[in-house]
């Protein structure tokens, strides 16, 4: 799998005229990588993910998955949102099967695939439960299982743990690393949480504030992510200081802006 974004540019029409959300975005993600993008609110990181998912159309530039141009949503890209987006009237099993059903997969095969990924995320015992019976962390595990069940080439994650409490968030971060290692799934995740990006990813793209551009790519090499104390290591703090310094000036500029940007987080 190879994802390539070339000279990506995105504008929105507003009452004040054209608003540039993203400008000259160039990035790549290789098979099996875990890559994060971080940026302040208004940097266009959610817009970037939606463009890669095919949910938005670029103003200019191109997005390629294995040299095929992205022109809309596709089963080669799985998506996990911050909100759990589960169908409340469907059981956990039915939610995980849903994408496979849309693809025309037979009932037996989709049940087998859904059961496998429910086991992967540790929720086999909740297959018949409704979403309302689950905790926030469990709901997000179901959403991840549903995205993985279609066996996408890349999993796109839009601040998937942003709505969780701190303790659950840390558990889910460890869980996601385990899923990544065990399935060798390629992951591109956006987050405003710098510590989360450093802990999870191998590379970080740091986005500037409006218009969103890539200020720098930061390579992350930590001694051991399985050690829960790794966030206290000096090298972890060094990475955090580096990323925060890149974000700092943009944060100051953004806080002085009077125009709300609800569409381009």
UniProtKB/TrEMBL annotation:
InterPro entries: AAA+_ATPase (IPR003593), ABC_transporter-like_ATP-bd (IPR003439), ABC_transporter-like_CS (IPR017871), ABC_transporter_ATP-bind (IPR050166), P-loop_NTPase (IPR027417)
EC number(s) recorded for this UniProt protein: 7.6.2.9
Keyword Transcription: no
Gene Ontology CC: plasma membrane
Organism superkingdom: Bacteria
Principal location class: membrane
Protein localization: Cell inner membrane
Species this protein is from: Komarekiella delphini-convector SJRDD-AB1
Enzyme class: translocase
SUPFAM superfamilies per the UniProt record, alphabetical: P-loop containing nucleoside triphosphate hydrolases
Protein name: ABC-type quaternary amine transporter
Molecular function GO labels: ABC-type quaternary ammonium compound transporting activity; ATP binding; ATP hydrolysis activity
Membrane topology per record: Peripheral membrane protein
UniProt KW keywords: ATP-binding, Nucleotide-binding, Transport
Family: Belongs to the ABC transporter superfamily. Nitrate/nitrite/cyanate uptake transporter (NitT) (TC 3.A.1.16) family.
Ranges of residues in domain ABC transporter: 3-234
